[in-house]
Structures are given as C-alpha cells and as structure tokens.
Amino acid sequence: MRLTTLLDTIPQGGSGAWTTAPLAAPPSTDPQAGISAGTAVAPTAFPARTDGGDAREFDRIVSGLIPCRVHDAELWFAERQVDVELAKSLCADCPLVSGCLAGAIERREPWGVWGGQVFVDGVVVATKRGRGRPRKVA
Known about the structure:
Function: Acts as a transcriptional regulator. Probably redox-responsive. The apo- but not holo-form probably binds DNA.
Shape: elongated
Binding site for [4Fe-4S] cluster: 68, 91, 94, 100
Main location: cytoplasm
Subcellular location: Cytoplasm
GO molecular function, one term: protein-disulfide reductase [NAD(P)H] activity
C-alpha cells in the first residue's frame, strides 16, 4: 500500500492490523546444530498486531518527515495570507506533496492548504482572499 494511501486512511484504521508472513530460515550447514546440512528449519510465525499499535508506530515514524504533522494543524487552515503562504512553502519540501494534492482534488476538500495549493469550496485557487471587504483602491 502506498504511503499516501496510508496517510489518508489512518483515521479509518489505516491498512488494518499488521500481520507477518511466516519466515523460513535458511538451511543449516553447522554440523554441531544437530540438523543435517540441507534440512530447512521450521518457519517461525509472529503474532498479528491488533492493539492499534500499528497506527501509533506509523505516526511516530512519519511525524518527523511530514510538515503538517510537525507544525500546528491550524496553519493549514489559516485566515491570514501570511500564514497561508507559510503553509504552502512548508508543503514544497514534503515528500508526499503530489499524493496529498491528488487526494485533496479527488475528495474536493472544502478549504485549506493541501499539497502546496490553496483550496476554497473544493477547487484550487491562486490565492486566498482575506476576511472582510477588499480595500478600496483610490
């Protein structure tokens, strides 16, 4: 599963519980081990994780890589133009910027900065207009 898909599905439980396929050990060539050379060792099975620890572990690993997990979430939904531009600049260095933008377009995000672009009413706009009436130009 792609990392962007995992990020989009974390609130819904991510990709599910982690399960590990049994691993087969390589044939032993040590005569002292009590197993003849060329005989495979029985595979070892690992228990599945069902305690929700997989989502926490994923968050811990990814949190240092993605700016929206490091900085305050309010920054990506800011009203001030300065804050919106800061959020857009932080997105530029994110390794998930293209997947984030594609997901936001697909979901028609109602507002905020997604994938380095500003969304208003589900569409990408060049700049976000500030609150209130525009200034009069004399």
